[in-house]
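Q: I'm writing up a methods section and want to include an example of the input and output format. Could you take the sequence below and give the corresponding predicted structure tokens, formatted cleanly so I can copy it straight into the document?
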Amino acid sequence: MDSTALVLGGGGPVGGAWMTGVLAGLSDAGVDPTRADVVIGTSAGAIFGSRLLAGEPAGELYERQLAGADRVDLRVGLGRTLRFLWAALGSRDPQRSVQRLGRAALKARTGPESDVFDALRPLLHTLGDWPDHALRITAVDALSGQLTAFDAASGVTLLEAVVASCAVPVIWPCVTVAGRRWMDGGSRATANIHLARGHHHVLAVAPIPAAVGPHPDAGQQAAALAAAGADVTLVTPDRAARRAMGRDMTSVARGPAAARAGHAQATELAASLNAVWRAGR
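A: Here is the clean output for your methods example:
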């Protein structure tokens, strides 16, 4: 049987809300995202991918967004935004760009690492051990700029992996896991679709298609997999969803509208998906 991969990208609180709508819309239309042979999660995608595999139905994740139950307060501010942009856009070379961002993240005065765990723990309370289902959680080494995908064999807890994947550079402190300092898995590519190489069918949900800086965007990564022979479906916010989401991806007030837009978009998309994604295949 052809192998399948579900890739869930980063997108902050608003992008995560849209993603839950997409997942619930697909599920309501008979497409079971958890049937993928592997789930690859980055940042917000790490949160909701882990929760899906921990047994939370997509519909419940969606309803929690509509009710405003899953909230993350990201206090960004103009100063931190400018420091982030200065670091990420300071070089046209992808490796140098992410290393600049890592140095800025390591130097930033953002408080203790426990702040990240405290902020995310309410969203991750259902997580226990790594699931039996194949799950890969991305994070970027803040010192080297290299991407890693944690899994059950990595020797770190699932909670540590997910929190490391969500450590937004300059906004939140880098997170120490396995003796190294980690920052957001979307620092190089917001969805890391390239990690699905080798799978025959790839469904990628990318709330934010492109990272800040000279890095390949989700469309480019999806095209590369398709050129290698994979059947790739890339889902990014359509015009209605972008309007509902707004420009501030940290605005929790936008969450319910973003979730509804994602659900509507997925309902239209489901009919065009390859039958391999449908329940009962």
